[in-house]
Amino acid sequence: MSQDLPQSVLFCCDHNAIRSPMAEGLMKKFYGHSSYVQSAGVHNDLEIDGFAIAVCAELGVELESHRSRSFDEMEQWGDDLSGFDLIVALSPAAQRHALELTRHFHVDVEYWAIMDPSGIGEGRDAKLDAYRQSRDMLVKRIRDRFGAPTEAGA
């Protein structure tokens, strides 16, 4: 069931290298500047994943310029977690971290069980299929939660 689009959304996962950047990119493609959208990870120890870049490019979502960042770096750079209307955690660790960081703020935190494709599949084609499954899970959850895309071509 779709709801009104929040003014600001933060997607988070473990490393901000696969699921949360894909969600951020998809959300921006679907809804443009209707909502402020960012992503972060519990850790920042990985660069954006090449398979995530490839499967999002299939839908016209550009992730090549994405720079991974952690919750701590996000706050250091001026994005206050209390300023987000909604935080969507895409991993159990990210959910725990988001709930801990927002315990004194009125911020909605949702958990979406999205498969981590990073360890799935042997060979390029099998890996791409796993990443497409995660991407498609995100597309469905985003559309179910926020409604039909508003941007042309989405």
Description:
By secondary structure, the protein is an alpha/beta fold. It is 39% helix and 13% strand. The chain contains 5 helices and 4 strands; from the N terminus they run βαβααβαβα. The chain has helices spanning 19-31, 50-57, 71-76, 92-101, 124-146, and strands spanning 8-13, 36-41, 86-89, 108-111. Strands 2-1-3-4 form a 4-stranded parallel beta sheet, with helices on both faces. The chain starts with 7 loop residues before the first strand and ends in an 8-residue tail after the last helix. The model has no long low-confidence stretch (mean pLDDT 90).
Count of extended strands:
4
Contiguous helical run count: 5
Helix-strand sequence: EHEHHEHEH
Overall geometry comes to globular
Unreliable runs: none
Residue fraction in strands: 5-15%
Give a topology summary.
Blueprint: E1 8-13, H1 19-31, E2 36-41, H2 50-57, H3 71-76, E3 86-89, H4 92-101, E4 108-111, H5 124-146
Parallel strand pairs: 1-2, 1-3, 3-4
